[in-house]
Amino acid sequence: MTNNWDSAIQSLSQITIYSNPNNEPVTIQGSSDELRCVGVGTDAAVFQSIHVPAYAFKLYAEDRLSKIEVEREVYRLIGDSDYFSTCYASYKRFLVLSYEEGHTLYDCLLQGIHIPEQAIEDVERARDYVRSVNLNPRDIHLKNILLQNGKAMILDVSEYVKPGNDYRWEHLKKAYDDYYHLIDSKSVPFWLLETIRKWYNHWNKYASSFEDFMKYVLKHTTFKK
Hints:
It comes from Aquibacillus koreensis. By secondary structure, the chain is α+β, with helices and mostly antiparallel strands.
């Protein structure tokens, strides 16, 4: 039986993904004129084929291939939900997902696109739903949330089988509630977002409170109350 996405498999074979230390985004080696990269994470990169644009292909780093079946199972448990992509199939190196239009919240900050409260509420509802199917909603951050027609869709579910709370969403929500008005609909420079991301990753290991972290950010950036 031929799948709709089979035409993309040869193109995907021309690309290799490598992970990087310190939770940095993966490196992409190789290319194909028939694919465009639509997302880059710390475990994988996501591609869309010009021939079958309805699908997204999540191609994993060579040392992260064990995560593919884990994520496939998470999608199976989540089932049909407006808050998540659909997973159609898994292969040795990649997942086949539904392609979702929209901007990540990270891109919204870069481009000055307003992030409505509805999107934040949607993530809260999505997290409740994930818990209802006995999974643990973790690793929810700016690059994993898509703004789609004013509503939120969550893109990466690979850590939902891990225990514990990483508090990334709680911190992001608090930053939205307390500080987003300072930058609402303003373009935030890429270098500044990346600086804050690296500060956060470092702080998250050593600092005492999120409030202390935000005081540091406000002191060392141009954000003012």
